[in-house]
Amino acid sequence: MTTRPRVTTGRRGMRRDAALWPALVATLALVLGLRAGPAAAGAWTQPAGSGQLVLSFFHSDSPKSYDANGRLSPRPDYRKSELYALYEYGLTDRLTLILTPSLQDIRSGQDRQSGLGYSDLGLRYRLLQQGGWVGAVQALARLPQGDADNRPQLSDSDTQYEVRGLLGKGFQLGGHDAFVNLEAAYRLRMGAPPNELRLDLTAGYRLTPALQLLAQSFTTVSAGGGAAGQSFYDDTKLQLSLAYDLDPATTLQAGLLATVAGRNTLRERGLMLALWHRF
């Protein structure tokens, strides 16, 4: 779910608003008091009246960027920290509500901007569930919450709409539970940046009853260049993590992420932490 900043030209004014961070953390701490229940993720919808809250933290830096030919070159250091709160709730067994507010802290060279990031609001609808397979469609709106005129030069600031198809399957592998989840999306951007095609893949394997290994890839390809002369771009990120069930309702996840290929984009290296709570 991380924002994928692009290499652009020009500078914009920046501001600081770090006071928002403790306010959201305190709010999330109150929400974590919800009762326990079943879990679901990816193409799987939440049962009616149940859901999950996932609090995720990402940190990455980008001292290098990819040019139009995919070659790396040094650039002023770019560092990004993001905090997401993904809330999913089953309105019915087939229809899940999705809400994701976020905070961000971005530094580019000597400049810094902190405050509200995007808020996602959407729905996921299950189309099929048979023989271990689950298929769903998802639609959401991504709304920028900060001041667009004061965002960093590499931060997105446009309203976005996304339609996504999801396909998942659970199965047994070597006597252990496993799953795969494939997602393809088209993201419509209302500002100058180009629209995007996205392809996400997740594979999970339960090493022990409480410990699961997750391998994920996230690919983004722009639909041409932007209206303001922005170049096309594409990138592929990999993320490897372990998820440990603290109890039937709570899971702790930790992992590493990296951009492994791209054009006209940043090369990111970083880490992620997440706390899942099912209710």
Provide structural commentary.
The structure is a single chain. The protein has one helix spanning 20-31; strands at residues 51-66, 72-90, 95-100, 102-108, 111-116, 118-130, 133-144, 160-173, 176-189, 196-206, 211-222, 234-247, 250-263, 265-278. The protein is 4% helix and 62% strand. It has a single domain (20-278), classed as Porin, CATH 2.40.160. It is mainly β and 279 residues long. The chain is built from one helix and 14 strands, in the order αββββββββββββββ. 30% of the residues are buried. It has a twelve-stranded antiparallel β-barrel with strand order 1-2-3-6-7-8-9-10-11-12-13-14.
Structural class: mainly beta
Examine the coordinates and then state which fold CATH places here, giving the name of the CATH topology: Porin
Terminal CA distance reads: 22 Å
**Got a strand count?**
14
Cα Rg: 19 Å
User: What number is the mean pLDDT?
Assistant: 84
Keywords:
single chain, 279 residues, Porin, 1 helix, 14 strands, 4% helix
Explain briefly what this protein structure is:
The protein has 279 residues and is mostly beta strands.
